[in-house]
Amino acid sequence: FRGTARDAARRVVLLGGASAYGLGVGEEQTTARRLEALLDDVGVVNAGVPGHTSAQSVARLPVILDAYGST
């Protein structure tokens, strides 16, 4: 996980590889932080992992939901 999602009533989980993670950019320039800036009262969890495939991201989803809740 990269960064911290803002405390909000709703959460979005961003899955993916290096692009989702934001490899090569500062935290405030990641897709997760930009989405948070656009969406009211939504926290975006950056669960991107450089080098991960879509299948690997989906396989990690139960762990992510356990960590952040599935509500």
Notable characteristics:
71 residues; alpha+beta; 3 helices; 38% helix
Account of the 3D structure:
With 71 residues, the protein is an alpha+beta fold. Helices cover 38% and strands 14% of the residues. It is built from 3 helices and 2 strands, in the order E-H-H-E-H. It has helices at residues 18-21, 31-38, 54-68, and strands at 10-14, 42-46. A two-stranded parallel sheet has the order 1-2. The longest helix has 15 residues, at 54-68. It is flat, with a radius of gyration of 12 Å.
Low confidence ranges:
none
Structural class: alpha+beta
Count every beta strand, where a strand is a DSSP E run of 2 or more residues: 2
Strand sequence of the main sheet, in spatial order? 1-2
Largest sheet: 2 strands, parallel
- Radius of gyration, in angstroms, nearest whole number: 12 Å
Mean residue pLDDT: 88
Proportion of helical residues: 25-40%
Q: Which H/E pattern describes the elements?
A: EHHEH
Which descriptor suits the 3D outline? flat
Proportion in β-strands: 5-15%
Set out the fold topology.
Blueprint: E1 10-14, H1 18-21, H2 31-38, E2 42-46, H3 54-68
Parallel strand pairs: 1-2
How would you summarize this macromolecular structure in one to three sentences?
Helices cover 38% and strands 14% of the residues.
